[in-house]
Amino acid sequence: MRKFALTLVLVAAMLLGAGCRDSRHIPMANGRPQVTIMVGGLEKIIYLPAMLTQQLGHFTNNDIDVTLLSEQSGATAETALLTGDVQAVVGFYDHTIDLQAKEQCITSVVQMADVPGEVELVSARDAATVTYPTDFRGKNLGVTSLGSSTDFLTQALAGQAGLTTADYNRVKVGAGQTFIAGMNHGGIDAGMTTDPTVAQMVNAGQAKVLVDLRTESGTRRALGGLYPSSSLYMRCDTVKAHPEIVQKLVTSFVQTLRWIKQHSPAQIADKMPPQYAGGNRDLYLQSIADSIGMFNGDGIMKTEGAQNALRILGTYSKNVAPVKDRIDIAATYTTEFARAAPRD
């Protein structure tokens, strides 16, 4: 019995240790940090800087080894970060606000874009009757997953048109081919997605653009201001424990953002893995050209954007709304590392 009891104690200790992995720990190998970053869809143009940074060799040149993982749902990516399975996430900034509402400290260390880069598409069959978010009433609206940034933005578009979540249905359809199938087979009437899915569906005559959040003007018109999106975010305790490693990461991304501003869509496409074009280079070039203006070139958050994101989530997010007055927006991002990134 004593032996059995001891075994139970050891098993419990092992399970407890596995569930409480110290996310502040960053592995080292041959003197180089080993960082795993989960990206909310590596093939999405809105997260293009992640793979491009690797392809340009910036991680290697800054003495850091990075493994990139792809996960279509931002909500799943944030869970992997909180459990310590990854050290960083390339995803939407608004997750840092949502998680603080849940008493978790996550901070954006590189802010790559000041606008969402998302598009609300309406299916070709519904395009004549759904011409504005007020027409969402009774419709099935596609989002990546419930609790994702596309979910927040969908609620914001509908909410600013006077609708509540009781007036329409949010449907989890993921991204890419699952989104396309959902729209083409009647699972959704409209939905929020990114390039290259936008270019693919519009060019094929399967959908039309209803709301375009790839530009500053379109974003301000739809959301009342900037809405920062693509970012590199990490746990606050990891940033505090390893500022020198964070600086290496941030410098790598900022170098890529500067490179993007100096090169054409064709030059950018040439650096990306060939399979990302999906056998249609012209469509891929169009996707890059339509969305590449979303990236800010310096990795620095604009205060206006962070405040507008808090306003929107404080209105439409069930997690943030009850505690919006207690959110410390300054803790959700830092410009320290991006400003310190050396010039080439």
UniProtKB/TrEMBL annotation:
It is found in: Periplasm. Residues 1-18 form the signal peptide. It comes from the Bacteria. Belongs to the bacterial solute-binding protein SsuA/TauA family. Transmembrane segments: none annotated. Keywords: Signal. This is Nitrate ABC transporter substrate-binding protein. It holds the Pfam family NMT1. Its main location: periplasm. Residues 49-263 form the SsuA/THI5-like domain.
